[in-house]
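Action item from last meeting closed. Structure (129 res):
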């Protein structure tokens, strides 16, 4: 399995998804108070550690046969990853400016994109698990 495929499969692991989502949005709390160092530590540290531990100690090849593992390669395009990052920048701006509405809009857009993308790709690939 090449590095690109391992990266895609890593994104499907439940622990990785949980860590990424919780740390990303939990870090906004500290950004709200303009604690940049703590924000970066919380935003990046656990995610990097989780990625390392999952890749080192967990066989992620089993994820390839799951429904989500089957549609993930079509969902995690470079364009979509860039778009998700840009949308998160809106949440970061909202936290820095202490504007809860920007954070909520950003979070809603990301959830909506995931829901639509998963639904469309599951229908395309006829994944019913």
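Sequence:
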């Amino acid at each position: 399995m090449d590095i690109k495929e391992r990266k895609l499969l890593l994104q499907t692991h439940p622990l990785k998804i949980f860590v990424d989502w919780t740390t990303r949005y939990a870090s906004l709390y500290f950004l709200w108070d303009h604690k940049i160092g703590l924000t970066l530590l919380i935003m990046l540290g656990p995610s990097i550690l989780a990625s390392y531990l999952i890749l080192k100690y967990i066989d992620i090849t089993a994820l390839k046969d799951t429904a989500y593992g089957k549609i993930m390669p079509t969902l995690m395009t470079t364009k979509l990853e860039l778009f998700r990052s840009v949308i998160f920048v809106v949440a970061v701006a909202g936290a820095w400016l202490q504007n809860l509405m920007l954070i909520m809009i950003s979070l809603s857009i990301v959830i909506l994109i995931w829901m639509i993308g998963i639904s469309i790709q599951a229908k395309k690939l006829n994944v019913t698990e």
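Note appended to the action item: The two ends are 24 Å apart (CA to CA).
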